Amino acid sequence: MHHTALRNGALSTIAALLLTVSLSGCVFHDYNSPHIEGVILNQGQPVADVPVILTNVDKQVRTTTTDSLGRFTLTPPGEWHLLIPIGPQDRLSRWAVIIEQGQKTLTGYTESRFGGVFSGYSGRDRIRLICELSPKSDNASPTEKVPLCQPH
């Protein structure tokens, strides 16, 4: 009887330990967008002093202005997360580069991704954009939206 009580106690301890480990959290750090570098051009010429905004799900997270060569850099803020593995862990990441040109606010580039809890960006993820403000005169239909910025 003494051995049975010890065995039941050991099993209870192991079960409690396994439950604690399986429900314990994991802390990790990531970004909702990559680091973004780009240049803004108008008819192929760099445009200085253009406000450029990084948004994350329609929330402004970073703002900068182009330099004399039309260049800009947007470094997203990193975020710490606590993962507790209970229930669905799906994650939507949607970011955009917004360009202010006079009274107009233009969406230069946008990207979305849907994935698991670890589907964010790392500190090494980068994207380079070339943004042309002048309208294209190619064969695109008037209803077809061509992004101002293209990955380079």
Question: What brief labels describe this structure?
Answer:
152 residues; mainly beta; Immunoglobulin-like; 5-stranded mixed sheet; 4-stranded antiparallel sheet; 11 strands; 47% strand; elongated; Carboxypeptidase regulatory-like domain-containing protein; carboxypeptidase; carboxypeptidase activity; Ig-like_fold
Helix-strand sequence: HEEEEEEEEEEE
Which spans have pLDDT < 50 for at least 5 consecutive residues? none
Helix content: 10-25%
Within CATH, the superfamily carries the name Immunoglobulins
Q: Tell me the structural class.
A: mainly beta
| Shape type | elongated
Q: Predict the CATH topology.
A: Immunoglobulin-like
Which CATH-level-2 architecture?
Sandwich
Content of β-strand: over 45%
Mean pLDDT, nearest integer? 79
| Rg measurement, Å | 24 Å
Pfam families: DUF6795
GO molecular function, one term: carboxypeptidase activity
Protein name: Carboxypeptidase regulatory-like domain-containing protein
Domain DUF6795: 36-134
Describe the overall structure:
By secondary structure, the protein is mainly beta. The chain has one domain: Immunoglobulins (Immunoglobulin-like), CATH 2.60.40.10. The chain has one helix spanning 2-23, and strands at 26-31, 35-42, 45-46, 51-56, 59-65, 71-74, 78-83, 91-101, 104-115, 126-132, 149-151. The radius of gyration is 24 Å and the shape is elongated. The mean pLDDT is 79.
